[in-house]
Specification:
The protein is α+β, with helices and mostly antiparallel strands. 32% of the residues are buried.
Amino acid sequence: MGCGEGHPNDTRVRVLPGLFECGATVWAQIPTLVGPGRVVPMMTPVGVCTERYYDPSAEPIATCGCGKLASAVCGQCGQYRCADCVGLSGGWCRGCTGAGAQHARSAALARERQIGVKLTTIDPIERLLQVAMWLDGITGDEVYPLVSRLCPYLDFRKPMTFRDPAAEVRPYSQETVPWDSAIVGRWVAADAARRNLPPGTQVITLGRPSTSLSGWWLFRGSNNRNASGQAADAFVAQSGAVVHAENPITDRGDILTKRLVPTGLNLRALSQLGRILDLRLPG
């Protein structure tokens, strides 16, 4: 299943699970001067398709809480939302734009501060993943100070601003994080091997020769931004490598890409890894 113009799927970009954006070049016949007084129509690239469409044959489509197909991610709560439930202010959904939602967010922050007293995990990486799980879905200036308080061994000497992975950030930039993503990746791989945890995704690089990596796909888990200004997806391989797939496409459950590049992990990725490893929150 592809776009309405019938363009091939190898140029599409995955926006959400089951939602894709066509990246095929659009051609048109343009009158072109080819000689003295001679004009002929020639096929000329005039842009990119950019049509968005759902493809249930590739993977299950993300759905909104109301039951409709999702078309975006709320910039506040990070949940999949349909076009009717996404507000116009800052990309937040209707549930996050009300005063009641803001009060609930303040209460949640207060709760996170109290929970920090119960956090006694000694292993620094496991503790970091647990903190990320607690803070998942919370955004704003309070996030990194909370991480710093709960994980005082992290390096916060550089000025850092937490950027919600689902929020659009322009110009594109890389988010600076206070943890070493390479160390986190190796720790996760070792813990997954100890637990005999099977990989959830296979990433195949196209080319000669092609390569295949098994591991865990992290939605909006990279500290790099994609063309839409949102955090790109990240991938932690069974070897512990932390990479990003350029222009990934889904084929029968596998992820196909032309190139894998090293990347970092954002806070949402750490939360996803904690849940993949089935870490428990104390208290």
